[in-house]
Specification:
Helix content: 10-25%
CATH architecture of one domain: Roll
Largest sheet: 5 strands, antiparallel
Strand order of the largest sheet: 1-3-4-5-2
Oligomer: single chain
Distance between the termini: 6 Å
Number of strands: 5
Order of helices and strands: EHHHHEEEE
């Protein structure tokens, strides 16, 4: 265990009520969107064909909403880092994410159970242009054990 305790989201960030989770930025590329389309089976041309997307009234191709959701879930898993499990994750799809954007995921631990093992998080996924891709994002995580006292270290 590090000096940050067993539940730091990333070094120096403990997962306790009031903690702010560090931002994780995900670059959005057309190749990434195409890979997501292939993996998901969602080949809607607004995601893959620039001319089609423009003809549909969009500024160009857009990322799948579920790709943004998946990147938020990936961020959440990085914050938890194998010390617990995600038991709930919810959001609403809101703004468009485009190739060339960076989806910036961040969050706050809103509350913890009395024993500190169940954490309620408020999350956001916003592009570098300020577009809120996902709104009303929240998660529940169950940690594997009680949090260590601040400054605890098992000698690792």
């Amino acid at each position: 265990m590090s000096a940050d305790g067993p539940w730091s989201a990333l070094p120096g960030t403990p997962l306790i009520a009031g903690s702010t989770l560090p931002e994780i930025s995900h670059p959005i590329t057309q190749d990434g969107i195409a890979a997501y389309a292939a993996a998901s089976g969602d080949h809607n041309p607004i995601h893959l064909d620039e001319a089609f997307a423009r003809a549909a009234g969009l500024p160009g191709t857009i990322a799948h909403g579920m790709l943004s959701f998946g990147l938020l879930a990936t961020s959440l898993e990085r914050w938890v880092a194998g010390r617990g499990r995600v038991t709930a994750l919810h959001c609403r799809f809101a703004g468009m994410v485009r190739p060339g954007d960076h989806l910036r995921c961040r969050g706050t631990v809103r509350s913890a159970s009395a024993d500190g093992r169940r954490l309620e998080l408020e999350l956001e996924a916003v592009t570098d242009l300020g577009v809120r891709a996902l709104t009303h994002a929240r998660a529940t995580i169950e940690m594997d054990g009680p949090p260590a006292a601040p400054g605890a270290d098992d000698g690792d």
